[in-house]
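Appendix B. Chain record.
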Amino acid sequence: MQCLRELLETASFCMGCRQEPHDAFNELLDATHEKMVRAHRGVGNWDKNARGRVVTNLPFRLGEYRAMT
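Structure tokens predicted for this chain:
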């Protein structure tokens, strides 16, 4: 809500993310996906990009995600 308030109060249209939290979150995503069957080399699915990286952004249970955010 603080981000939305800041955007509205400054009449801004976008907000960036610092590199460190961005990278940390992506490392967590990759580590979490590696424990799931969807990341296995032999599994083809819609949530892998051309390089084989799973790109789904929410591999967490809702409660886990809520706690992180």
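Further analysis of this model is presented in Appendix C.
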